[in-house]
Amino acid sequence: MVNIVIGLNNFLMSSDNPSARPPFYDAFLSGLKNAGNNVLCFERQNYKPIISDEIPDNYLEIIKKFKPDLFIFFNNQFWNIMKHFDAPIVIYDVDSPNSYSNIDELKQNKNKLKFFVNQSSGIEQIKDIIGVQTENIKYIKPFTNINSNPNMEQNINISFLGACWIWNDFNAPLNFSQQLTTKEERDEAFKAYHRYIEQPYYDLDYFYDTKKDIKRLKFDDIKVSSARISGIKRLRYLTAIADLGLEVRGSNWNSPMLKVFPEVMLCYNIQQVLSYVETQDFFNQSKIGFNTKHIQAKSGFSWRVCDIMASNACLVTERADDLKTLGFKVPMFESASEAREICEKLLKNDNMRKDIVAHSHELIDKNHRLESSLAEIEDFLNMRLRSNIAGSLQIIQISSIKSIIKTDIPKPPEIHFPNIDKKSFNLKDSIYYKLSKHLFNKISSIRHS
Question: What is the per-residue pLDDT for 414?
Fold first, then answer.
């Protein structure tokens, strides 16, 4: 039995749905517990690129009493606790290095850390970007706890479950286009943009010819810009299949930017999917489960891919080399027209679709449940993670309400007390003064809470 502390960003968690959690995290946490480990999980509500504050004393004391043998931080979404503990720390890759918190800190302490990546190309990324030695990086195959239900009616032709990544404007190309530029400058910016799509882990200036003094396309934020580009691509693919019986669910689909994608928005179902059971039901109702990739996924694929392949749905996905390497024989596309052609073909051919689903089930059950990955993790960490002893799971949700109050609520206006002339001082002035002072103290206490 091992005591494991987990740190993660749960983007589904909210005050209205405190138990909401993506299926991958459910599979990981429950899998470790069921294997006989004690798991203490800290869920952060909002992604933080920089975590500069110290771990709060109450959390630190909880961890000390827990006596951890191992730390696993998804995308490094946790405080720096290296000075407090000697137990090994693993950074688990959910997205890519451009989504890690405190990446400069990771570079400084790279020899003290180990890394799990979710795509085979991630090994070279971690070596190149953080400078980690190969022996400290391990590719962990994606896994799922979703199960099929042959008795469920498949009344959805094509399902897509995922976020909209165009939650506000993508200003970089527009800002560049408003400058007076030469053809050479436009050509150079176009080439740099497409080089960035191939390697979205570096600042865009990395892809320019530094010998040339030209007007440059500039991104405000590398992580956000890669999401914008991926989101545009996602919407183009979804538009191509919208009239084939598509149903879209997920988060961030209320963006004003989606007004120009009416076909997709008319396929959107606002009903929330907040747990692995709800995810399982949604995919089991679907004939096809559709997947697009983020540009940061070079060889890999989304967590939803294994969820779809474990369900009743037939996966149709944007091309991913790791799927071929892992032995999956699923339909893959590289263009919107190809995606549409594949979906049309599968919707007309039940036997072909069911054969693909049966093959996917076989490989999922053989290689893509957490139990299959634990042996590899044990060898890598030289730590036994499976036993017959009953494990436990405790989840602590890190509230971000105070930080929201401090940063997002406008500063209240200053209150100026009147200059009271002693000769003309009366009861009315006294009441006004006392009320104003009371109000000032109330606002001040809220502002500093």
Answer: 36
Q: How far from the centroid of its chain's Cα atoms is residue 203's Cα?
A: 20
Cross-sheet strand order for the sheet of 3-9 = 137-139, 113-117, 89-92, 70-74, 3-9, 38-44, 392-398
Contacts 24+ apart (CB under 8 A), 205-212: 212/184, 212/188
Helix-then-strand count for the chain, H and E = 16, 12
Q: Beta strands of 280-403 (E only): which ranges?
A: 286-291, 314-318, 332-333, 392-398
pLDDT tens-place string over residues 157-203: 999 999 999 888 888 999 999 999 999 999 999 999 999 999 888 87
What span, in angstroms and rounded, lies between the C-alpha atoms of 443 and 109? 43
- 145 close to 31: Cβ distance less than 8 angstroms: yes
> How many Å apart are CA 50 and CA 220, to the nearest integer?
16
- Which two structure tokens, joined as six digits, stand for 448? 């500093």
312 within 8 A of 283, measured Cβ to Cβ: yes
The CA distance from 100 to 94, in Å, is 9
Count of other CB atoms within 10 angstroms of residue 297: 21
pTM of structure: 0.85
What is the model's pLDDT at position 415? 35
Question: Using an 8 Å Cβ cutoff, are 398 and 56 in contact?
Answer: no
Residues 129 and 110 sit within 8 Å (Cβ to Cβ): no
Inter-residue contact 181 to 215 (CB < 8 Å) = yes
290-337 confidence digits (pLDDT tens) = 999 999 999 999 999 999 999 999 999 999 999 999 999 999 999 999
The single-letter DSSP state of residue 178 is T
pLDDT confidence of residue 112:
94
Greatest Cα pair distance, the chain, in angstroms, is 97
Which amino acid belongs to residue 272?
Q
